[in-house]
Design brief:
With about 350 residues, this protein is an alpha/beta fold. The protein folds into three domains: about 45 residues, no CATH class; about 130 residues, Nucleotidyltransferase, domain 5 (2-Layer Sandwich); about 150 residues, 2-Layer Sandwich (Nucleotidyltransferase, domain 5). It has twelve helices and 15 strands. The strands form four sheets. A five-stranded mixed sheet has the order 5-4-3-6-10. Strand 4 and strand 5 form a beta hairpin. Helix 9 packs across helix 10 and helix 10 crosses helix 11. The C terminus is likely disordered.
């Protein structure tokens, strides 16, 4: 630890003692590795003691989870709500009610965070979410009545937070530059450079789903025509497969050998590769990670994705495409990392937060 942090041993020991007193870490018996000198104790995070309550709001689903220090998802549930159909207030209420029974008694909930499938600032101002049909909302004001206590709450775009999750806890750990592309109903992108999330001046950098790739193409949910979303989004996959079910079902059929589903997957893979090649030329990431059902596309038709990427990229050695390691949890883990980033600037403040004590009848 002294080598990685650049701190001397006495300073490290002092910090370890302080964090241990706060209940954030614990030490276990030292084990010798055969080298000279007294072996150092093993230090590990107490993930269950300090947690965040995080949620994800998509077009037709919402999830809520408790995530501990170190990105450990303690519990998660799918909430019985359709956000686009019921609107933002009812969605916030449903998430709040679902979260009540998720928190483990004795845990200190230090923050809440939400990943939203739309353009949203960390302060909670949602500019637009075309697929949700939500615009100009103060998400913080909506969420506050349904939070258990006066805890800080943070917000972010789902793809931005998915990128953060994969960078910190997933397949792209320690990668300096990461491009994350994710697909559910729409297409989102997140960019990590120099270890930091890049969101642009107005918070909507890498909105790759709305790059126009075919000027005379299909009408997009944003109102434009020929956006990338119209070629690799869920609706596009279903259209190409001749199905009305879901992206997951088309992927399942493709795995089972259904020819129409396989052709649809191949076509989406081709467009995905085309997009990645162009984005690599523009952004030069160290790695590109595919999330949502795009991770299935990479697993099923990775050769096509890479071939089309390399056909466009100026430097083919820059192409490194991976499927998400966190999968459905990427945005949730990223939301927790966003919250912990703020909270851990002052770890001592965590001690001021009381553990949850659930009332019993």
């Amino acid at each position: 630890m002294t080598h990685r942090t650049g701190l001397n041993k006495s300073t490290v020991l002092s910090l370890v003692d302080e964090l241990s007193e706060l209940g954030l870490i614990s030490e276990s018996t030292a084990v010798s590795d055969g080298s000279r000198g007294r072996p150092s104790a093993i230090v590990q995070l107490n993930s269950e003691n300090v947690v965040t309550v995080v949620s994800e709001i998509a077009v037709d689903f919402a999830r809520i989870a408790v995530v501990g220090l170190g990105g450990i998802v303690m519990q998660s549930i799918d909430v019985d709500v359709n956000p686009r159909a019921v609107g933002p207030t009812a969605t916030a209420q449903a998430l709040g009610e679902a979260g009540v029974n998720l928190i483990v008694p004795g845990s200190a909930v230090v923050a809440a965070a939400t990943a939203v499938h739309g353009v949203v600032s960390t302060e909670g101002h949602l500019t637009t979410a075309p697929n949700l049909d939500w615009r100009n909302l103060d998400l913080g004001q909506l969420a506050r009545p349904f939070l258990p206590r006066d805890i800080p709450v943070f917000f972010g775009n789902d793809a931005d937070l998915g990128a953060l999750g994969e960078h910190r806890r997933g397949v792209a750990r320690d990668v300096e530059g990461l491009l994350y592309l994710s697909a559910e109903r729409g297409i989102g992108g997140g960019l990590i450079r120099g270890g930091e999330l890049q969101q642009g001046i107005h918070g909507h950098a890498t909105e790759v789903g709305h790059f126009v790739v075919r000027r005379a193409g299909s009408r997009c949910s944003c109102g434009s025509k020929g956006c990338l979303e119209t070629e690799i989004g869920e609706s596009a996959l279903l259209r190409k497969a001749g199905r009305r079910s879901s992206a997951g079902r088309v992927v399942e059929l493709a795995r089972e050998g259904d020819s129409a589903a396989q052709r649809a997957v191949a076509d989406v893979a081709s467009w995905l590769g085309f997009a990645i090649g162009n984005l690599v030329n523009l952004l030069d990431p160290g790695m590109t990670v595919a999330g949502g059902f795009l991770s299935d596309i990479v697993e099923l038709a990775g050769d096509t994705v890479r071939r089309e990427s390399e056909a466009v990229a100026l430097v083919t050695e820059a192409i490194d495409i991976r499927a998400s390691a966190l999968n459905r949890d990427a945005a949730l883990v990223g939301a927790a990392e966003l919250a912990f980033d703020h909270i851990l600037q002052d770890p001592a403040a965590i001690a001021l937060r009381s553990p949850i004590v659930r009332e019993t009848a």
